[in-house]
Amino acid sequence: MIQLTPIENDDKKMFHQIALNKTTKNSQCLTCQRDKKICNICELGNRGRMLGMETYVFKRYDLYLKNKKNLECIEQEDSLDDKNKSIIQEAYKSSVLFDEAKQKILANMPRAIKGKCPFCMISEPNTFEHYLPESKYPEYIIFTPNIVPCCSQCNTNKGDTFSINGKRQFIHFYFDDIPDKQFL
Fold this sequence. Notes:
Number of strands: 4
């Protein structure tokens, strides 16, 4: 196993820019006759909803970084409703800005393991693992320190688990100290 280095990325700025890039595509906005300046605060549209989440999400980003060595201390919160969760999930799947961040994450892998999953060191990293699971911590879906490249099998094996009874079960390749001794 080899330590990974998180990419240098302003995740708050990226979140904000992704929000501003939201268009007025949903049905509420198509029928809205108001000045489009209201889109930044309108809770009917995805742009306004995502911008409205910033204070909460940014506070959670700060909490993650403050506890990066003790992520099991971060309590799960149900502060985002299903609509807000789906907006962030959609940004993960279809945002050009976040796709660029994922490419930087892959390019930033150490030469010794480029093309290998850091969990198993066998398969190719063809997906990204959310260290704190997206189903339980949706605020971290597009937070790059929470995204680790891995193979689909390891992603499936980890699933939504990262701690059991308050004890972490998996190494965080960015923040945990990884011994440089060979075990096998």
